Amino acid sequence: MKHPLSFDHIHKKTLVQRVRHFSYPRWLTAALAPVLSYYLMELITHNPLEIPIQFQLLGWIFSYLLSGLLFFLSGRMNVALVLPQIFMAILGTANYFVLSFRESPILPWDIASAGTALSVADHFSFSFTPRLTAILLAYILLILFCLKIRIRLAGGWRKRLIGTGAAAAMSALYVLCLQNDALMNALNIYEMPFTQDYAYEQNGFFVSFLVNTKYLKVHEPSGYSPETADELLEQASSEHTASRSAQNFSGSLNQSSPSGYTGGGIYFPEDPVSSDEKSVDENQGHPNIIVIMNEAFSDLSVIEDFQVSEDYMPFFRSLYGTENTISGSVYVSVLGGNTANTEFEFLTGDTMAFLPTGSIPYQQFISGELPALPSILQSYGYQTIALHPYLSSGWRRNQVYPLLGFESSLFSSDFLYKERLRDYVTDDSAFKQIIQEYETKEKDSPFFSFTVTMQNHGGYAQDWEDFERNITAEGTEDSDLSRINAYLSLIKKTDDAFKDLISYFENCSEETIILMFGDHQPNVETSFLENLYGKSYEEMTEEELALRYQTPFILWANYDIEEEEGLEISVNYLSSLLMDAAGLEKTAYQKYLSVLQKELPVITANFCIDKDGNFYSAGEFDRLDELLNGYEIIQYNHLFDSKNRNNSSYLPD
């Protein structure tokens, strides 16, 4: 029999005393505190019980993993419970104010601009609502209760080290699982970057935040260096390279490459500019430029002609082949949504082909000033304005537009003309607002406006009191064609409004260019589309499906310009074409793109088409390395390496 004061006796007695001292309510609090903390955080901005149960469980797992990691690190339960609660209370409050200020939640890529946000924080008014105050008080009570939970991890540093490693490994696995597309599809995780606030409400904060992290990193392309980008662009700066023929350009592919560069690309001989080439007179008058990126504007007959009760774009078609008009098709990288990516490609000249699938550059990659079409035109003395008859926070436009060089932006609340159709501001109102801004522009400044419309936005199935399907498609028996009929009827209204806009500027004394193109094709009935193709989607080739990424464009001028018809290019080239039509000196980057266009006229995230009409799917892009690698190097320098970016290559001399 051991002595009553032996070590084993004392140790067992101590453990028993601890268990008795630690009551069941406290055990229950320790078990539930991470979950309660998760719900309190979600409750700050929305009702967490409306989150699907599988995503609630994923939120619990995050909370338990965080507490478990801190428990093994600190060896104390109260620390493991209290620190996450403080973190979630602060994060939830910050997310509340971010939503209040910009109508978008905290996103992973906001970390890069946190310093800028803090520097302007004193310009905002922070007010605590009764709901937020009550939740923070609940956090304080929970924290005070958890401080009394005194459980320590028994054992030495080895046990803590093993536990910490295990918790860290499980946390890493958790993050990797949330970035696995198969698992995301199995769990039905909502992933629609345009409506991040809704995504956070559907998935919960941590699930949405961690899913978004997969879009953060873009790796340097092969052979990248700032010097290589500079050399490629410097060689493109000679004015003669922008107008060289495709035949002469083909020979340039075999020229010696920039020093230290071993990859493929396009190279420009360093021939002197000929004496008869004219430089741009900075004081000469420039035409007004009006660009309209029309929501879902497209012509589905590019797939195959179909019977329709009435032509849905008679005026637009009437401009094909007319004087002072360039017309054709643009290929885009998106279908049925993600408008901002087409917008990004047009305004910057960059392509989605070199960016992660599913990424949205406006939201992830643009946090500082980026030379783009607005800033280029601004340097020529243009008054630059962006118009979008919808929410300012969509795709972070209110933050991105100034960084691209727009001096001012108008959103739905700023419009004087607000006639609505299906609750969207009509194209007719948007075009009238363009005229309003033109008539009130600065007298001595050329005018550049860029408008993204909303009238034809998706959601075509329901019935509306203010809208009738006046145009009907035929050719598919026993099918409900309410969506395509609504869509075609909307396109006809756009066509009518565009006719009025052209009529107005036909009678203007100032030289003006109007460019309109569609951002993507719509999502309409599968049966209708399969009828056009004459086969099911499963039977279609990637080349056949590429027709779904084609939209029409018209570039019209009220003065004499060189005409062209039937041009087929991708949207990243369209701004360079616009600069040519306007008679403006292009940047070195735009000259590079103009020459690349002759060899590879279509580059999208999904496919490329070369000058001979050969089609390359995204999985075959390695066959185009010789052409694409130089472009990718320049784009990386332009979009991601701002510290080493020579802005003179992306802006006029």
Tell me what you see in this structure.
This protein has 653 residues and is of the alpha/beta class. It folds into three domains: 16-215, no CATH class; 228-271 and 599-653, no CATH class; 288-582, Alkaline Phosphatase, subunit A (3-Layer(aba) Sandwich), CATH 3.40.720. Helices cover 44% and strands 10% of the residues. It is built from 24 helices and 13 strands. The strands form three sheets. The protein has an eight-stranded mixed beta sheet, with helices on both faces. A three-stranded antiparallel beta sheet has the order 11-12-13, with no helix packed on it. Strands 5-6 form a two-stranded antiparallel sheet. Strand 11 (602-603) and strand 12 (607-609) form a beta hairpin. Helix 4 (77-102) runs antiparallel to helix 6. The radius of gyration is 29 Å and the shape is globular.
